Amino acid sequence: MATTAVEGNQMNRPAAVQSLWTWLGVVPFFLFALAFLFAPTTSLFVGAFQNTQGNFTLDNVRALGQPFILRAYWVTIQISAVTAVFGGLFGFLLAYATVLGGLPRWTRTALLTFSGVASNFAGVPLAFAFIATLGRVGLVTTLFKQWFGFNIYDQGFNLYSFVGLSLTYLYFQFPLMVLIISPALEGLKREWREAAENLGASNWQYWRHVALPVLLPSLLGTMILLFGNAFGAYATAYALTGGSLNLVPILIGAQIRGDVLHNPGLGYALALGMVVIMAVSIALYSLLQRRTARWLA
């Protein structure tokens, strides 16, 4: 009996060593998350409830009700929603065309490669790229003037406005949609379409009653992710507009690092509200993705 127990321990030892090495492999991730996610989040949460002397206060949270702060949240939500909806629809149509549209295989590879690069191309480089292209003396603006005598700025377009910033955000929003929704489109089983066609369903009826209900949670979840992605963008908005648009990320920067509006406590409170919105977005995205996985796994 004792011999059997010893043999069992010897057999379990390699599995325990393997498990230990597996956990050691994820230690850097947990350290990284602890240092750059949980520690800063805890710091801003504490700072949101402290005054300049370090004493507890609710003034910073109460200050979130000021009109200019509410307007900042409203404008940021509007830009995030607009770019999430348009970026989501455009990205879905692109992904559909390449995955299910019957286009050559190389178009799918090219689109996914471009999407992988473009979805990470944000911040100051993206802002300057759009200024060089659609600024007042940008390449496209100048070509329109010279070739057609048409000045897009005389027609109301302004790159440094709500519309211009939304257009800039779309550059990294729709590629992200392509990357996330393509696997979901590939997960639609051929048997579902064949069964629908055998029952006499048209293409529209197949999408209306089979494909779209399956994809809807993934579509909505990805759009929520796009919303959070735009809501937290700072460098692109600041480099493009110079702070002329009243956005929450820019307002946070002004409160924490600004010379005139310097109020770190209010900046932390603004960031806390932003974290809440981002956390809700991620939670909804995870919930919807879990519902999609039941069908597309």
Structure notes:
It is built from twelve helices and no strands. The chain has helices at 2-47, 59-62, 67-99, 105-118, 124-134, 139-148, 162-186, 190-198, 203-231, 235-241, 248-257, 264-296. The chain is an all-alpha fold and 297 residues long. The chain is globular.
Mean pLDDT figure:
87
As a percent range, the share of helical residues equals over 70%
Radius of gyration: 25 Å
Principal-axis shape equals globular
Reported for the largest beta sheet, the result is:
none
Strand content: under 5%
Q: Count every helix, treating DSSP H or I runs of 4 or more residues as helices.
A: 12
Low-confidence stretches: none
The CA-CA distance between the termini, in Å, is 45 Å
Count of β-strands? 0
Order of helices and strands: HHHHHHHHHHHH
Structural class: mainly alpha
Write the layout of secondary structure elements.
Elements: H1 2-47, H2 59-62, H3 67-99, H4 105-118, H5 124-134, H6 139-148, H7 162-186, H8 190-198, H9 203-231, H10 235-241, H11 248-257, H12 264-296
Q: What descriptive keywords fit this protein?
A:
12 helices, 78% helix, 297 residues, mainly alpha, 0% strand
Short description:
With 297 residues, this protein is mostly helical.
